Every structure is written in C-alpha cells, then in structure tokens.
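Limitations
The structure tokens in this dataset are predictions for the assembled complex, not deposited experimental models. Users should treat interface geometry with appropriate caution, especially where small molecules or nucleic acid strands are included. An illustrative entry is reproduced here so readers can see what is and is not provided.
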Amino acid sequence: MLPSTLNYAAPTTLGAAVDLLASHPDAVFTAGSYRLLIDLKMQRIDAGTLVDLRKLTELYGIASVEEGAAYGVEIGAMTALSTLANDVRLLAHYGALAEAASATGDAQIRNMAALGGTLAYDASAGDVAAALLALDAVIHTHHSKGQRSLDAADFFTSDGKTALRHDEIITMVALPSTSASSIYEKFTHPATLEAIIGVAAAVTLDDAGRVAACRLGVCGSVAQAKRLSAAEAALLGGALDEAAIAGAAASAADGVEWLPSLQASAEYRAHRLGVMTARALRRLVKAQG
Amino acid sequence: MANKVFGKPIKRKEDPAFIQGAAPFVADIHLPGMAHMEILRSPHAHARIRSIDTSEAAKMPGVLKVITGHDLVGRMKPLPCVWIPGGVESHFPLHPQDIPGAGMPLQTDHVRFIGDGVAAVVAETRYQAMDALRAIRVDYEVLPAVTTPEAALAENAPQLHDSVPGNLNAYWTCGDSASTDAAIADAEVVVELDLLNQRTINSPIEPRGALATFDPVTDEFVLYASTQSPHNHRLILCYYVLNISLNKLRIIAPNVGGSFGTKGYVYPDMPLVLFMARELKRPIKWQDSRQGYMRSTVQGRDHKQRAVLAGTRDGKITALRCTSHANLGAYPSTIGPGVATAMMGRSITGPYAIPAAFCEVYAAFTNTVPLGAQRGSGRSEATFMTERLVDLFAAEIGMDPAEVRRRNFVQPGDMPYDNGLGWLYDSGDYPELLERALRQAGYADLPALKEEAKARGRRLGVGLASFVAVSGVGPSPRMAKEGMLGGTWEAASIRCEPTGDVVATIGSKPHGQSHDTVFAQIISERLGVAVDRISIRHSDTMGTPFGQGSYGSRSFSMAGPALYLTCDKILQKACLAAAHKLNASPDEMVFENGRFYVDGQMDRGITLLETTLALWYAWDIPDGVEPCLEATTFWDAPDFNYPSGAQIALVEVDPETGEVELKRFIAVSDVGVIGNPMVMEGQLHGGIVHGLGQALFEQAIYDDDGNLISDTLERYALPKAAGLPHFELDFVTSPTPHNPLGAKGAGEIGTVGATAAVGNALCDALREYGVRHIDMPFTPEKVWRAIHPHGG
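Predicted assembly:
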C-alpha cells in the first residue's frame, strides 16, 4: 500500500530511538532517507512509522583514536558521506573509504546520506561496503538488549541484507590504524549511479616490497559484499608485480555470487571484476611509487 | 536594415517562473471539491477478460465511483487514429464513424498490452483510489503474446484485433523497387546491414496528467491536460469520442514539462476524467506516476531494418534499399502509423543523390505499449541506418568516410532536389556543413590522436553523420496524401491595445520551446514594440485560434510565419490610418522603429501607438476601415522545410571493459533563419542529448510475455549532464523559400544525427577488431563482447 499517512518521530537519545523500534513492529529507522523514500513510493517496503535518527547528535563526526604509536578513527554513523569524502585523515590513511563515499550517488545524495544509513539500507550494494571490508572495519551498534560490535566481514549477510536486528542502530564505525594504501574502483550503473561492481583494495608492503597484508572487498550487484580471498591469497607474500596482479585478477571473481542485472551478465561482471582488481592494484603500485 | 530584436539571444521570458518553481503544471492545480481518478491496468500483455468484480472496491473508504468498460458502452466511442499510412491499404481497430479506431478507453473482454485499462476508480483522495484498485478482482485468461513485428506477422501468431488480419496494419512502400534491385544486381560493391533501431521511452520531466470539470448548469466541460495539441484534442474528444458539442469543451494545457512527441496523443484518461466529472459533477483529476507513464505512454523508434547499399569502387552510391518491420504496439496511437512509415521511409536517402532507392515498411501490431513519435522520429531511424551503411561502404572500398560523403552529396545548385522517395529538398549546403564540422574536429590531425589513445590502451574513434530532416508539417494537401486525416496549417492573431501593449494569440502550444520569447521577438521586430509589452497567449482553446499542435519541429516554422504575416496585416491597416491622420497617401508612408512617416519627411509622422489609439477611438478613421487594430492569419506552408546538418562524435573505447566515453561532439546545423540563437543552442543541446541517450543507454526491454522490464528510471537509464562533453555548435544558414521567416524546424535535428555519429565513431574505434556493427545502446558489455566474441 502506498502510505498516505506515516507516523514520524525524531528521538534525541539512542535509548528512545531503540524503544520506538522495539514497540512498533511497523517502524523503520531513517538517516538520510534517500533510498527509503524511493522504496516507500515504489511500494517496495511497508512502513507505518519513520524513526528519524538525525537528532542523535552523538552519532556525528570523525574522531582519531590512539592505538599505541598509531591512530585509528571512529566515525559516527550519522556522518554524511560528503564529510567522509573530504576528510583529510581518511584521504591520507583510508583512501578506499573516502573514494567510496565520493563515488556514491551525486553531490546532493552524498550531503544527505549517512554512513550508517547506507550500511544498513544499501548493505552489500552500497559503495562503502567494499571499502569497510578492505579496511577491516568494526561496526558498533546499539539495540534494546545492549550493544555489540561486528566485523565488517560478519555484517553483510549472504541474503543481501545485514546482521542488524529490527531495533538495532549502527552507532559508529571504527577503522583500525593501518599503514596500508587503499583505493576504490567502481563500475557505475548508468541509471541509479549505484555500483554494479565496486572493488576496494588495501595493501601493505614490507620493506622488501612484498605484500605483507592485503584485503580486497567487493560490493555492488552481488548477493553478499565480501572479501576476495582467492585474489588476496594470490598476492600475499609476493612482490606486487604484473604477474601477481594478473594472478589476483584471474581469481578475483572466485566465490562471488552475482545478482541478476539488466545491465551486465554474470560472465561480463566476473571479467570486469578482474579488470577492476588489476587496475586497483596497479593504482596502488603507482601511488606507492 | 539590421534586426534589433529578432535573431538576438535575449533571455527567455519564461524562465523566472520555471526557475522559481512558480509555474503550475496539471499536478499543481487543485480545485474545490476535486476528487481523484486512478485507472486499473492489465498486468498481462495479452489476455481475455472473463469477468471483473468491482463490488469490494466500491465499498472502500472514500470511493465515489468505480466503472468498467461495460459502463462506457453507448456512452463513449473508441479513440480514433488520425494519421494512417498514406496511399496504401491499411487495417485498424474499428470506430463507428468509419475512421480508423484506436481502442476503447477501457477494455471489456480483451486486453492487448500491460497498460491497457480495464477499470477506473474515483475517490476522495488519490491514495484511496489507488487502494481501491487493489480490491478490484479481474479474472483473466492469459493468452500468448507477441512483442516483435516479425513474430506478429508469422503464421498462426496470436491475433490482436479481429479487424486486422494477421496483425498487419499496412504494407507501405516508397521509391522504385525494380530499378533499385537492378542497380544492386549490377553494382560493383554491395554492403548489407541488419539492425534493430531499438524501442525507447521518452522521458519528459513531467509525466502526464488530466483534470476535468463539468458545469451541470451549462453542460460545459473544462479539461486541463498535459497535451501538445489542445485544439486538436478538443476536436477529437468532442466529435469522435464523447459526442459532445465542440462549444461545450474548453481545453487548457497549462505549463507542460517536456513532451518530445509523447503528449500529442489522445489517451484514455482524457475522456475518462471528462466522463467522471459529468457523472459525479465534481472536478476529477488523474495524475500519472513515472512508472505509470513508462507503461502507458507512447514509446518511440522500434524499427527492425534490413538494408542494402550499392555503389561503385570509386565511391559513388548507386542504390539504397530498406525493408523495415515497424512495431506499432497494441493499438495505433493518434498519429503513430504515419510516423512509422512515411517519416522513416522517405528519409532514407538523406543528403545524398542516390539514383535508385526503395523502402518498404511492414507496420504491425504487437502486445507492447503503442508506438508514437519521438524527437526526430523516422528521420533518426533512417539516418542511423543510412549513415552506418555509408561507413561500411567506405570501409569496403577503402575510402575515407568523409570523401565518400563528398562524392555523393546533393549539391546546393541542385535545389530544389527531388529525392525520389517523396521529399523535395528546399535548400541547403550539405558539403559546407560537413567541411565545417571536419575543420572544427581537426579531422586531419585525428590519426595522431588515435595513436596517442592507443598508447594509453584506449581506442579513439571518429564518426560522421550527415543528414536531412524534413520538418514543418506541413502543407495540408500534401499531408492528406500522406494519410493525415485533418489539416496541418497554423493560425495566429495579433491585437494592438490602446495602451501600447500587444497581445498575440496562437494555436501552437509550447512544452519547452520558448514561444513566449521568440514569437514576441518576431512581433517586436516587425512592429517596433518592446518585447516586454508583448504577450503571447496560447494553450487555452478559449480565446486562441485553432492550432494543429506542436510537433515535428513545426512551431517556429509554421506558427511563426502565421504571426509574421499577421504583422503585415496589422501594418497594412495601420498604414491606412496613419496616412489618413497625416493627410498623406498610404503609398508615401514609411514604417520604421514603431513609427510611420511620410517618405522624405521624417518629422511628419505618427507612432504605431498613436495610430492604434486613433483606430481605437475611431473618431476619425478612413472610409472602409474598421475600428481597432487586430488581425488574424491562417497559414498553410507551400511545402515542408528541410533542415540539415553534419555531426561528428569522438569516442574513446576501453577495450578491456567495453566502456565508451564520448570525448567531443560537434554539430553544424542548417536551420535556416534563427529567431533566438540562445534558444536554438538549447534546442540543439537537448536534441543531441536525446540522441546520445538512445546511442549509449536507453532501451525499452520487454520479456517474451510482453512484460515491460525497464519500467522505472532505475532500470531505464537516461543520459546525465555530468557525463557529457561540451557541445561544439556551428551554423550554416540557407533560408527556406517555403515561409516568410526563412526558418526551418530545429527541435529535432540535434537528435537526428547523434545516434549515427556515435555509432560510426564506435565502429571506427573498433575497426582493428573487425567489428562491423553493434546495435544500440552501446553498453559496455555489448561493446566488450563485440571486441571479444569468445569472452574474456
């Protein structure tokens, strides 16, 4: 049914927000509302109550967190993607997330869309999903029974959704300190501007130029945003040269389950993921000089 | 004397209201007591209706009335079709007035496409009406569907209309089949091409809406509708559909947010809101959604062409032959069948002097959304086909594509030129258009750029498209032969007010074309009145002269001349009054800068305003001259006009991914005399983008059961401004002799060449891979598969 009336609430505390969800089975959280409003209009979801999280002031902002000699960051879930795209700490140390945020939608969407909203609502289809996998992010939440933290790899579920409960709010995304360089590559849907394929890569080289650590994440028109473990294995411990890159590209699509798409067949997307993976790695090589 | 206003890039008078969101569209109109209508549409592309149960819906909250097609029997007639394939036998759904029919507004026993209406609900709110639709129970017997003309024409294909045997609307031809076949048989070189000019969905920013009121005291209706042709639609609705007096219906087409051909049709919602308004004696509004629009508003293109071009080894084209299957959809739209035949078929020779040419079109009904015009309709499909063939011919004989075109152009000295297929080109300099475009592109330097791109792992391609695009429908007697069941003249009136203001009323209706500005420029230039003192009134059938509609690039070149000639009449009458006032002979009068004076005596004069006042007071006016200064012109063109152009696209292809990036786009156009260069640039930008959309992104996708898969803007991609290059525009001016402005149609020519320019550029980029042709849209995967036919 197209809802002619909707209940609306804008709580100012996390507890109140969670209580609203717990007491209203027809309620949904909304952050930037971009995707939600389209889905409501298209009658793809049913909702009787919108619980707007925009007044939860503690969920905004990016903080540096000391981790021994290094720093990680904690990003409030309501922080706008445009803020992530322009944050100097992210641009310097978490390039994949800044690029993924910058690649999402258009400028107006990025101004409205919140990191938590795209994680919860777009799930594996959101650009940031691949970046958070590559950056080993931890997603912190608050729900009626308490709080928990989820590794990015456990957050996206194989049904295209997330591990979030009905009344669970993402509060913060923590990125551990890293010496890796990371970037994001995107094959953009011409109509929706969503990722048909997004691939993020974070690679740390040791002093000998060998791959000491590497994480590759894929998102887009996939059943589940996930790490590209076969490609990672192909790179680990060796030099990041053309042969290694070719090996990673060849195995990039192993284990990726593609959703149906009018834009591109699974065969083409598998090929393209390989090309994108190789290009991402070459860009990293170039960036590391 | 040089023009002061006409031909100048003055800012659009329309813009402030649009930019500020103040200009109302149908959706913005709210009338007291207004109720809302929704239409239940078939979920099946082809089905028998066994029964419809509306009893539950009628009990839903807020529901005022529920009707089915049975409630319309005897009270409403089928919609008509008024442009049929000319000069040939054709078959249509029936209409009791012995004209071609286009189906009832609601079906009673047989639905033929996914947008076919089966019931309508009126409720207090739009949402209540939508909810009530879901309570209507329709028992369908699903039938096999056909979605392509070839399938529809096959033996034992499902039949759509009892009165259309074998689903064939018409077999239409132009040109000389025998001489063309003989020339092909004798030719040194023959190139062939099978292609699908894919179906596209026009996507103006405003979906359609209709709002009707009925006055039970006077029996008068008012219909607010997003239509390109308010006058014509009034006539059709009154006379052919509703059986009401023409005097009882007024149509107001408020601001219309783009159309590109889709709002020139009478749709079922129009008679239905009128019917409901009379039944309920309340204003009734229907407003489509985007998805509803995509599923029920006419779609464009959809020609499956098999074409042959023959020529000599030294680059002379000797013959061109095309067999096309045109997909009309489930019903003929108001003017669809004419678009699918003549506009494509007669245009295939383009700007070339081809001694033998022939085109045949099989126009067939299928279980898809009805077909209609779309910006550049017919001419775009013809140009893509012919220009692709010219490039294939050039490749076959190893000649530069530009040189092949040079060797075959109709020359300026050949005008008027009979193309042998029914068009008589009026004017143009096709070689100059191409040479200018080549210079702008730096054609000679492109091989070096191609090498540079290749060094980067990319492939650069350059594509040329030369074209002629018949415009300005049209000469009425000629259009009658072309199957148009009505006149195609235009009308304009001008009234000079005693205050110095001028009001012009025109039959033509804008949906983005800048009528208010450019038509005021014509009057300002002729009468010496400031543009801001001139009002152009249109879009309301009350108080404006009958106009045939804004389509086929005809407003400026058809309504413009009507206005221009009305200025003549105004000046002739004013001249008599001015001469009388000055005690001079009308022959001695000179009119300049808004003032009459006696030739050689500049100080012995009278302004147009003073003359207007004299005619308004009528205290002392010449014998035989009526009071007031007002005139009307009904104008029919002696023939069409033929704008032309040359376009060049530069694309860069990523062979690893198949991504196509448009790097440059050059358009040199001959639109005759230009009224406002800024408006003209806007028309070209929009037109080009329309063509680029078809080339790169757009396709209406049906599954085999006739379901439209691409029925949202999430699945149907439109071009976005951020992804487009700066367009490089230039103009060559050959005024048409067929109207006093010298103006040719310009609304469509940006579109007509763009698909071909991009297609040729893409195939040029992929030449080393042996790619001859790729059907549009050029999606990355299609291009990648063309490069790597055996996969990655």
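Some entries come with short summary sentences. For this one: The interface with chain B takes residues 1-4, 42, 106, 187, 189-192, 262-265, 267-268, 270-272, 274-275 of chain A (CB under 8 Å).
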